[in-house]
Design brief:
- By secondary structure, the chain is of the alpha+beta class.
- The chain is built from 4 helices and 18 strands.
- The protein has a 6-stranded mixed beta sheet. Strands 1, 4, 6 and 7 form a 4-stranded antiparallel beta sheet that branches. A 3-stranded antiparallel beta sheet has the order 5-14-13, with no helix packed on it.
- The radius of gyration is 17 Å and the shape is globular.
- 50% of the residues are buried.
Length: 280
């Protein structure tokens, strides 16, 4: 069942998204050679709780497996769900995907970004840029009357045009009072198919893009997904509300539009939570 959110509920989700945006920006700024992925996790939990929210991922259970951390930190060939470790130190030239979500006043929001550690090679930079561009091209299609497949195709077409591949084992999802709701939002597929978007739907769109083949496998920890061929992977994500006026990006800081987003995509902090940016 797809749960439509009221205007008031979307405003409450904006407040949750504000916290995600602020903490994710803090984490990205802290990425540097020599820092451990566990240090990033500790920072994420500390900032989340300081802002009055709780981590969305820590304690999340799937088939009896419980995720042990606040943030997913996925390095190089790790696609998603990397578990932070005090023994994993970031190295110059790495790329690191940071996936982070919170629950605030009963509503979840979720976002991700991939950043380089110091200077990275040209191919890794192109991989990250392409993935973020695909995210915003997908968001452009998240409009009343369009279908899930319109988003899926926009992402896939852009990625494959650049010579990369989209991951098929993991997809985006609805979000609200639960971290994962319907509908699912694949990053591949034909236009004109799938659920039709209605005002009040809120979804997390999250392209996961590999430099090599699309196939992934999950490591023995039961969580960390890696590329089967060892190629690098990038991951970007936003939580987006569908409104009559167009898509509203709940997890984007004020004025930060993607290069492909255009002026019709709305971003910005909620009035009820506008002071959070100054408290960092």
């Amino acid at each position: 069942m797809i749960v439509l959110k009221s205007h008031h509920e979307i405003e409450r989700m904006r407040a949750s998204g504000d916290i995600v945006a602020q903490v994710l920006d803090t984490l990205k700024a802290r990425v540097r050679p020599g820092i451990s992925t566990q240090e990033l996790d500790a920072l994420a939990e500390r900032e989340t709780r300081r802002l009055g929210a709780r981590p969305a991922f820590k304690g999340y259970s799937v088939a009896g497996r419980v995720f042990p951390a606040t943030v997913c930190v996925s390095v190089n060939e790790e696609v998603v769900h990397g578990i932070p470790s005090r023994r994993r130190f970031l190295q110059p030239g790495d790329i690191v995907g940071i996936d982070f979500g919170v629950c605030y006043q009963g509503f979840f929001c979720d976002a991700a970004a991939t950043v380089g550690v110091g200077e990275v090679d040209a191919e890794s930079s192109r991989l990250m840029r392409t993935t973020e561009e695909a995210l915003w091209l997908g968001i452009e299609q998240m409009r009343v009357g369009n279908r899930v497949g319109d988003v899926s195709a926009a992402v896939q077409e852009h990625v494959e045009k650049q010579g990369f591949t989209v991951v098929r084992e993991f997809v985006g999802h609805g979000i609200g009072t639960q971290l994962h709701e319907l509908p699912q939002l694949p990053n591949f597929g034909p236009r004109g198919r799938g659920v039709r978007f209605r005002a009040g739907m809120v979804l997390a769109i999250e392209p996961m893009v590999n430099a090599g083949r699309s196939e992934v496998r999950v490591l023995a920890d039961g969580w960390t997904a890696v590329t089967r061929d060892g190629s690098r992977s990038a991951h970007f994500e936003h939580s987006v509300a569908i409104t009559e006026g167009g898509p509203v990006v709940l997890t984007a800081p004020d004025g930060r539009l993607g290069a492909s987003s255009g002026p019709r995509v709305q971003v910005g902090r909620s009035k009820s939570n506008a002071g959070l940016a100054a408290s960092a």
